[in-house]
Design a protein that fits this description.
The chain is about 30% helix and about 30% strand. The chain is built from six helices and eight strands. It has an eight-stranded mixed sheet, with helices on both faces. The longest helix has 16 residues. The two termini are about 25 Å apart.
Length: about 230
């Protein structure tokens, strides 16, 4: 029997996300709110020291004025799909970025982590990894069978991140979209509910306090830990 023939007995559609805060050790994910998160989000992604390449492959931005950013922020915060979260530092309460659950298809149990906007202060830190872990855990807790990650095929950083997080590469949709007046070939990755137990175990082992030395440096990589679980 091929994978396409496998029955899915007693299938029930996945649930949609709600306003619950998703708590981690380094960060928490709060439902994005214009009044509560707007100033911090603006400072993290458009203020001094912000990543100059952050908006290169995103659908929106960069923004020349706060007014333009606020229009984007309001649309992001009030939409049902994408369902946006603010990434909040557990120690300082600072807003470090935002990410979303997007392209939700509950009837088939399919959902995507997308529109990842991390300020420079959380890139290549445990905070970014934990934010993705918390959202992946929520996606499967909602009853989804498949979690997707897609990116512009030119976006080398997003390709590397997807593979590091445990997503499997599936291929490219050529001429899939036109973004900011340019062609976008879309690369696709996924984690299925069958993959998730090993991926989750590796995430949790990597995020554990004992995986960091006295200087806060990782002892084992996420890839090493995932290899030990399969």
């Amino acid at each position: 029997m091929s994978a396409a023939d496998i029955p899915v007995p007693n299938w029930q559609p996945a649930k949609l996300p709600d306003n619950r805060t998703l708590e981690g050790r380094f960060v928490r994910l709060e439902k994005l709110d214009v009044a509560r998160h707007g100033d911090g989000f603006w400072a993290a992604v458009q203020g001094p020291g912000s990543d100059p390449k952050l908006w290169e492959y995103l659908w929106s931005g960069p923004f020349e004025t706060r007014e333009e950013f606020d229009v984007f922020l309001h649309s992001r915060a009030t939409a049902g799909d994408p369902w946006a979260y603010a990434v909040v530092d557990q120690k300082t309460g600072a807003v470090d970025g935002s990410l979303t659950l997007i392209n939700m298809v509950p009837v088939h149990g399919r959902i995507e982590i997308g529109s990842v906007i991390f300020g420079a202060g959380m890139q290549r830190t445990p905070k970014g990894t934990e934010a993705v872990y918390l959202l992946a855990k929520e996606a499967f807790a909602l009853g989804n069978r498949r979690l997707e990650w897609s990116c512009n095929d030119l976006n080398a950083r997003s390709h590397r991140a997807a593979l590091r997080f445990g997503f499997r590469y599936e291929g490219v949709f050529r001429q899939h979209q036109v973004i900011k007046g340019k062609n976008r070939d879309n690369a696709w990755y996924s984690i299925t509910d069958g993959d998730w137990p090993a991926v989750r175990t590796a995430f949790e082992a990597w995020l554990a306090a004992e995986n960091f030395d006295g200087n806060g440096q990782q002892i084992k990589t996420l890839e090493e830990l995932r290899g030990a679980t399969v």
